[in-house]
Design a protein that fits this description.
- The complex is a heterodimer.
- By secondary structure, chain A is mainly β.
- Chain A has strands spanning about 5, 10-15, 20-25, 30-35, 45-50, 55, 65-70, 75-80, 90-95, 100-105, 105-110.
- In chain A, the strands form 2 sheets. In chain A, strands 2, 4, 5, 6, 9, 10 and 11 form a 7-stranded mixed sheet that branches.
- In chain A, strand 5 (about 45-50) and strand 6 form a beta hairpin.
- The radius of gyration of chain A is 13 Å and the shape is globular.
- By secondary structure, chain B is an all-beta fold.
- Chain B is about 0% helix and about 50% strand.
- Chain B has strands spanning about 5, 10-15, 20, 25, 30-40, 45-50, 55-60, 65-70, 75-80, 85-95, 105, 110-115.
- In chain B, strands 2, 5, 6, 10, 11 and 12 form a 6-stranded mixed sheet that branches. A 4-stranded antiparallel sheet of chain B has the order 3-9-8-7, with no helix packed on it. In chain B, strands 1-4 form a two-stranded antiparallel ribbon.
- The N and C termini of chain B lie far apart (about 40 Å).
- The interface of A and B includes residues 4, 40, 99 and 103 of A.
Chain lengths: ~110, ~120
């Protein structure tokens, strides 16, 4: 069990560019979550997968955001046409039973 | 909708003194409750969780919390803090009724332990 990993750890991009983040959950965890954390705030829920099915999306997830979890293993979060307001820490978490989530180290996005 | 309130944004405390970080949530329907700690530029680490049973929950690093259903509170305590406890602490609620078990977080409390 190597824990949840996220790649990259840091991403600096120019406004208008597309970015993609990857999350590798703990193996055999069927539940996967994405959260966004802005400076001085707690993480906010973005989306939830059970296996490969995306079962819930927050209203925070505008149409510029898309998430996938092909084959129910790793997940990707893509942001198209990035805006400065997208600058945040993007956290991924996984769970097997739903009673505890294990978080990755996060991807810090800076949009210039 | 479920919400979580952490009234104290910052708590300074001297080393070896006791500390309490407060957390209140909005709904008394079935919930799971959690406290996580976050060190700078890192992810979240679970301190403790309440799922059911005894209302006093013990966690890692000497932390404990008490679930109070009538007051919808889940305050975190430590009898004697160390410099290494300096970090951001988040209270989270998982609403069981929704089935996704997604977390609703508070805004966090920055604990600063002073020498």
């Amino acid at each position: 069990d190597t824990g949840v990993s996220q790649d990259p750890r840091h991403k600096i991009t120019k406004r208008g560019q597309n970015v993609t983040f990857r999350c590798d959950p703990i193996s055999e965890h069927n539940r996967l979550y994405w959260y966004r954390q802005t400076l001085g705030q707690g993480p906010e829920f973005l989306t939830y997968f059970q296996n490969e099915a995306q079962l819930e999306k927050s209203r925070l997830l505008s149409d510029r955001f898309s998430a996938e979890r092909p084959k129910g293993s790793f997940s990707t979060l893509e942001i198209q046409r990035t805006e400065q307001g997208d600058s945040a820490m993007y956290l991924c978490a996984s769970s097997s039973t739903g009673d505890e989530q294990y978080f990755g180290p996060g991807t810090r996005l800076t949009v210039t | 909708a479920q919400s979580v309130t952490q009234l104290d944004s910052q708590v300074p405390v001297f080393e070896e003194a006791p500390v309490e970080l407060r957390c209140n949530y909005s709904s008394s329907v079935s919930v799971y409750l959690f406290w996580y700690v976050q060190y700078p530029n890192q992810g979240l680490q679970l301190l403790l969780k309440y799922l059911s049973g005894s209302t006093l929950v013990k966690g890692i690093n000497g932390f404990e919390a008490e679930f109070n259903k009538s007051q919808t509170s889940f305050h975190l305590r430590k009898p004697s803090v160390h410099i290494s406890d300096t970090a951001e602490y988040f209270c989270a609620v998982s609403d069981l009724a929704r089935g996704t078990y997604k977390y609703i977080f508070g805004t966090g409390t920055r604990l600063k332990v002073l020498a």
